[in-house]
Amino acid sequence: MSDASESVDPEELQRQLSDIKGAMGLAERYPGRARLWLVAGLIIGVAALLVQATFFLYETLGAAAYVAIWGAFSVVAVATLWLVSARLPSSEAPEGAPSWRVIYGSLGAFVVAATGVTGDAAGQIPGLDRALLYFGLVIATVGLGLLVTGAVLVTYRVRRRDRLVFYAGGAWVLLFASALPNVEILRYVGVGVFGILFSVYAIAAYVYLTRA
């Protein structure tokens, strides 16, 4: 027994342990995060459907109704994310891993800056095209966020096949954003279609991440 203990190389054991952990999936390494992703994905999907509904009803809804609808949705969305996040087990980010707050904060700043870059040019195009421009930029930023998330998960030692969920999601969302102003039917109901597709994608991704 003593000989067996003395033959163990601590550094080799640590390396093997790191390799085993590196092969873990998102749901195993960070319990509850797949559920948080599901909730966030459904919120994005519902927000897109709400945008589509209010777009159709813009002539009948007053400013107060808009504020009430989006105010109520924002409160419910933030409260739901907070409740789900508060119940997650705490975990330390790996050394050198970037902050999620910085990443998503940067993406938020990017979409605000991108919409501002349009300047006076946006005011010279018809209302529908202007709306599609802004909706397309927001949807494309969601796709960019998925691709960045997949890449950053490398530093969080999440296995490749789980990261593929985010790469695939980013690819189809970017394709959808580029098709939005160019496909006739999508010009009128594209944001709502995106909301349905993104909700389905979020559910499928959750099932894959928790069952694979």
What do these coordinates show?
This protein has 212 residues and is an all-alpha fold. It is built from ten helices and no strands. Helix 4 packs antiparallel against helix 5, helix 6 (100-117) runs antiparallel to helix 8 (127-152) and helix 8 (127-152) runs antiparallel to helix 9 (160-179). The radius of gyration is 21 Å and the shape is elongated. The two termini are 39 Å apart.
Quick take:
With 212 residues, the protein is mainly alpha-helical. It has helices spanning 2-6, 10-22, 26-29, 33-56, 63-86, 100-117, 119-123, 127-152, 160-179, 184-211.
Structural class: mainly alpha
Low-confidence stretches: none
Major β-sheet, in short?
A: none
Could you tell me the strand content as a percent range?
A: under 5%
Count of DSSP H/I helices: 10
Helical content (DSSP H or I, runs of 4+): over 70%
- Secondary structure tally: strands: 0
Radius of gyration: 21 Å
On the 0 to 100 scale, the average pLDDT is 85
Instruction: Write down the secondary-structure element order.
Output: HHHHHHHHHH
Distance between the termini: 39 Å
What general outline do the C-alpha atoms trace? elongated
Question: Can you lay out the helices and strands and say which pair or pack?
Answer:
Layout: H1 2-6, H2 10-22, H3 26-29, H4 33-56, H5 63-86, H6 100-117, H7 119-123, H8 127-152, H9 160-179, H10 184-211
Helix pairs in contact: 4-5, 4-10, 6-8, 8-9, 9-10
Label this structure with key terms:
mainly alpha; elongated; 212 residues
